[in-house]
Specification:
Chains A, B: InterPro entries: PurS, PurS-like_sf. Two copies of one chain form a homodimer. The first copy, chain A, is built from two helices and three strands. With about 90 residues, chain A is α+β, with helices and mostly antiparallel strands. Chain A has a single domain, classed as Phosphoribosylformylglycinamidine synthase subunit PurS (Mth169, Chain: A), CATH 3.30.1280.10. The relative contact order of chain A is 0.35. At the A-B interface, helix 1, strand 2 and helix 2 of A face helix 1, strand 2 and helix 2 of B.
Chain lengths: ~90, ~90
């Protein structure tokens, strides 16, 4: 069965995020009252697995493989079965 | 009051995503059965607003300001009030 997974990979708290700082500067300049802006990556993917627990395990293994363990944290934001279209 | 917002910005379906293709190649090489891998950006930020509807409106305006309307779509993935720490 196919599953759709959404994985977030973000810098750990305390790791300097220059991109987030830049975006914060832009938003503040536009008049938005924002702070602590952090920019990370989101991955959307479809994976083949026999069951939902297997899909979850596979998605977490993928997140682990793509994240830098020293600087980043990851989370499985969403996992849902994909309807097969005939 | 302060709110924490999580915003996703992703390429529209149909827009070629070279980074997603590259990640898909790596994952396939590692033995994962994945397809349609798409890589986007996630923004985490704190914003000041008088109410939750105002915070939502502000977060969506920020997402609109940061996304490229021709190539990208955005979504407010999560919005929650931040506990004030004294």
């Amino acid at each position: 069965m196919k599953y759709h997974a959404t994985i977030l990979i973000e810098l750990k708290d305390g790791i300097l995020d220059p991109q987030g700082r830049a975006v914060e500067g832009v938003l503040t300049g536009l008049g938005y009252r924002v702070e602590n802006v952090r920019v990370g990556r989101v991955l959307e993917l479809e994976l083949e697995a026999a069951s939902e627990p297997e899909a979850r395990e596979s998605a977490l293994a993928i997140a682990r493989a793509l994240a830098n363990p020293v600087m980043e944290v990851y989370a499985l934001e969403a996992l849902r079965p994909l309807q097969e279209v005939l």
